[in-house]
Records
---
Amino acid sequence: MSVFLQPIYTQTVGAGGTTLITFNNIPQTFTDLLVVVSARTAFAANYQYIQVLFNNNSSSYSATSLYGSGSAVSTNRNAQIEAGAVSANATSNTFSNVSIYIPNYTSSNFKSYIADGVAENNSTAGYDSFTAGLWSNTSTITRVDVSGAGQTIVQNSTATLYGVLRQGV
Amino acid sequence: MSMYPIASYTVTNANTVGFNFTSIPQNFTHLQLRCFGRTTNASIGAYAYIYYNLDFSSNYAQHYLQGDGASATSSGAANQIGNSLITPPGASANSNVFNNVIVDILDYTSTNKNKVIKQIGGFDNNGSGYVQLYSGLYFATPGAINQMQISTGNGSVYWAVGSTFQLYGITTSSVTGA
């Protein structure tokens, strides 16, 4: 993380949960964005994933990921931004720890990002992931959505959007 | 700026097994620890541990995803005593080689959440090395973290002089952007 790290928005999920965390009207005055998520979903499993969209647009994403399950390593490619989330069957009161870094979010180039995340559980099985991704869209990013990919994100989950300034900006 | 230096420790005594960050301020949201470490363990890659609130009970779990230049592996363990710190080089590693690790601890003051720790780091030994994504869980009854001990976990293994550890506090925003 840069020392020029500015918290822009933070949302904490309240009682009853939510299916979507939205950050609107993102200032265009930073050089990079960082999204930090601590999430747990109501999905009946140990792990699921959160999904992130830019500008409420679900098209033109590609990603290459590396996963560790606690026993095996795998890699795949998919067409969405995702990172691990702890789910309902995992150790209670346990949430994920996810960072998504998006450089040059105001540029007219396609948007690259990296995502690293861990979803813990007091078990030999776990869910660690590391992703490099691309949004093939030249629009500046003005909105970021974090969803439970159709599942409820439970109370006390949090998401914070940071802006990062380069030296000299 | 939302990232503030809280404390720093540089090993100057060659007999340092561990040290504590005590009285961690409770006015931040997240913590970040940056490590540059090496130990006197006889192997190339050694062990080291982080303990929270001086809790040396089996209240920890951990998982990792690792590459060593030849293969990728993943492993996990429940009910551990302490969270492993990403592998620091030991005495058999090349001289002057230290690891480089960033440890993120979210919501460390929360009394609703267990503490989930993410580490990214590794070291290269000019011919061998490790790169790791490490996760840790501290699942004692959720409470604020106010102390951290960083230790080799072995009374006869010491941190190398010059190892440094910096602890930062990170704030969040009161604005939701909803």
Note: Chain A has one domain: 5-164.
---
Amino acid sequence: MKKEWPLWEVFVRSKNGLEHRHFGSLHAADADMALENARDVYTRRNEGVSIWVVESKHITASNPEHNGELFEPAQDKVYRHPTFYDLPDEIKHM
Amino acid sequence: MSKHLYNYILGIADNNLILGQRLGELCGHGATLETDIAITNISLDLLGQVRSFYQYAAQIADDGRSEDDIAMLRPEREYLNVLLVEQPNTDFGYVLARQFLFDAYHYLFLRELQSSKDETLVAIAKKSIKEVSYHLRFSSDWIKRLGDGTEESHERIQNAIDDLWTFTDELFHQTKADKAMIEEGIGVNNLKLKEIYYSNVSEVLKEATLVVPESKYFQKGGKEGIHTEHMGYILAELQYMQRTYPNMTW
């Protein structure tokens, strides 16, 4: 039997209307305990209104070795940013 | 001042203070990082609640003593907490069993205190009960986990429950202050909580595959200021700073 509890990733929504954001990780025996632990570890200073937990093994991560092929091609494609439009002055937040 | 009301408030507050101090001893020594933080949070909740009670007690005593004086500078015989909360942190099982046996009472007590005739007590009860609902959920969950966990966790939590059971009856004893306050509609008739307490506790224990102790032999004394041998050590640590450097602040 494994002695260590599995690792869980914690996502907290800090305000209604905002999205859940990754806050950190913790150990817990199951999902219920992970939620309780997340409440105690990450929201005791009034940081959140909703918590998601997911066992870390269920997250598929990109491989840092592939960063070149995955992300570099996007670097020299400025035309993918909508920066070449003349915006009317009335539009404040773009 | 109303001596009965003053003692009644201390009876409530001292439970929180001493249990909070006990849990505080575990800060940095928790079984895991997560339970360490959880237990320290509970300790801080209890100490937060206690401030409101001691402030109120100081106001009623009206003898120049502050909330800190009342909390920190009484001799052992004047502390009115139940024996249960002063029992030591023998192991994780004892910590959780003590917490569960107290939370189950604390929750019922605060629920009733919300209909007291004393507005200050009602306000404190309303604020505290949310925290205590969480404490009860936390400790009940752990009782179940340990109870139907491994052979060792089952045995240890059963031992802790068996040992601490002897301190549960005192929760329902009534001191002179209790009786006077019940009479005035200020205090909670704790005797009436006894049946539901044991029924709630038994339900959790059964779900945890634990045996509900049948012992009819119970300890008492804390509510009258007669404590177990552990109390002196708790106070020695709790009062050290104020006794050594009177009136110090930081």
Note: Chain A has a mean pLDDT of 87.
